[in-house]
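Query structure, 466 tokens:
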């Protein structure tokens, strides 16, 4: 079968004169840009249309569905965010309720807002070092009984790689006639090796959204949406994917998705994936030798071994900066008490040796300094349950006013305020500022945790409903 990526490469050398968009006219030399420009086209004859696929795009999406074992799979060029918005809009009737994990990506909150939904939140357990844990199946069952909602949305794996029991959650959802949407943005690699957790498609989720670019060899912004059951209206999914994606989809991105999936199932891809996992497991084994830096290696939960979560109380930011400034190692993120290093099939084996040697030196340095433990406070990371006064959409449509931070207790928020990382909202539009919440935000700020979202930019005033 001809791939879109190969077709683009062939077209680039065929000599066609481009009196069509885009304006660079594939003239990479003239504008000092890369060779990829020669394959950057628009919807021209022979290349099909993402929003109405009848030719090669239809063929490669159908091929993806066969590879993943789904009912249908849809290429996404606006990232997982567009897929999450489409999934929420296609499955939840406007003005109804949705059961959603509180540690969801902001695109979930956007979906709740634009569809005028009433959220019912599922709160993950907060593990040591402030790491968000899994969503429990019993929480989902209770939420469905209390709300009568027909849609559940969870994130699995989390940013840190923790995986929920999607199989049991799917069974509970289906028993209660509910659709399960799984934001599996960080788990696109699960399908390609048994050493990773089972992916949400295999576990019976109805809709699964994956960011190929996060953990596979693909362009930033590429993703895929899988529909995995007859409970989902395919025509609605198509309609909303079209609404939330650009009308000028990148053929480079689509060709990249095609190339990425084909590579992962090829003999070469399987061989390289095996080499990657061998090196990764050796690296993880070495990391366990460190004395003051602890590798997250859960015993009571399932997790993704590709995420290297290194915990050190009170020294997360130090560890991150030290690796960057002294050893030229750029990690994914830093929290107060841990850092994340993301690995993938794209890694060079020597990178693991460089990182391990750097960590070994830092570990000795921490030994001589003594790890700071007195600023670590588990209660600081516990999620305060939201007190919801009105739907987010109603709050955003209401008149607002800036209120002094010291006087906002009892008022209803009109903006989102969150600690970063991990980015979980402390308060969202339509939720009430309680005494406990205001105290927690103040404590976090005093402890040096970054609090974002204040409209006034200083944190002295907060936007509330009049």
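Result returned for the query:
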């Amino acid at each position: 079968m001809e791939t879109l990526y190969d077709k683009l490469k062939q077209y680039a050398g065929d000599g066609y004169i481009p009196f069509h968009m885009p304006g660079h006219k594939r003239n990479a030399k003239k504008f000092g840009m890369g060779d990829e420009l020669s394959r950057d086209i628009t919807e021209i004859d022979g290349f099909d249309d993402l929003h109405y696929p009848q030719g090669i795009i239809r063929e490669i999406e159908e091929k993806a569905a066969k590879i993943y074992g789904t009912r249908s799979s849809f290429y996404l060029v606006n990232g997982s965010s567009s897929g999450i918005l489409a999934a929420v809009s296609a499955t939840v009737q406007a003005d109804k309720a949705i059961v959603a994990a509180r540690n969801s990506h902001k695109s979930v909150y956007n979906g709740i807002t634009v569809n005028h939904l009433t959220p019912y939140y599922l709160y993950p357990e907060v593990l040591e070092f402030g790491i968000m844990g899994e969503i429990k199946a019993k929480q989902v069952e209770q939420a469905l009984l209390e709300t009568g909602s027909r849609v559940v949305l969870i994130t699995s794996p989390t940013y840190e790689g923790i995986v929920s029991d999607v199989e049991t959650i799917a069974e509970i959802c289906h028993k209660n006639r509910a659709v399960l949407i799984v934001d599996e943005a960080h788990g696109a690699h699960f399908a390609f090796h048994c050493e990773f957790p089972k992916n949400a498609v295999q576990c019976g989720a109805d809709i699964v959204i994956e960011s190929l670019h996060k953990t596979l060899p693909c362009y930033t912004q590429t993703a895929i949406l899988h529909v995995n059951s007859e409970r989902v209206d395919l025509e609605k999914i198509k309609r909303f994917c079209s609404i939330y994606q650009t009308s000028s989809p990148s053929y480079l991105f689509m060709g990249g998705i095609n190339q990425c999936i084909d590579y992962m199932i090829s003999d070469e891809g399987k061989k390289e994936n095996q080499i990657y996992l061998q090196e990764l497991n050796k690296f993880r084994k070495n990391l366990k030798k460190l004395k003051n830096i602890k590798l997250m290696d859960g015993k009571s939960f399932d997790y993704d071994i590709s995420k290297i979560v290194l915990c050190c109380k009170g020294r997360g930011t130090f560890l991150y900066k030290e690796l960057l400034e002294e050893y030229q190692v750029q990690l994914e993120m830093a929290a107060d008490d841990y850092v994340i290093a993301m690995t993938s099939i794209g890694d060079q084996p020597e990178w693991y040796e460089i990182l391990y040697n750097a960590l070994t030196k830092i570990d000795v340095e921490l030994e001589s300094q003594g790890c700071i433990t007195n600023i670590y406070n588990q209660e600081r990371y516990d999620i305060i349950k939201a007190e919801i006064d009105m739907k987010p959409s109603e709050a955003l449509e209401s008149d607002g006013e800036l209120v002094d931070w010291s006087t906002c207790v009892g008022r209803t928020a009109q903006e989102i305020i969150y600690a970063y990382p991990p980015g979980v909202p402390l308060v969202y539009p339509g939720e009430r500022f309680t005494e406990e919440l205001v105290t927690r935000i103040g404590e976090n700020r005093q402890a040096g945790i970054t609090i974002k979202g204040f409209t006034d930019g200083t944190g002295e005033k907060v936007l509330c409903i009049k």
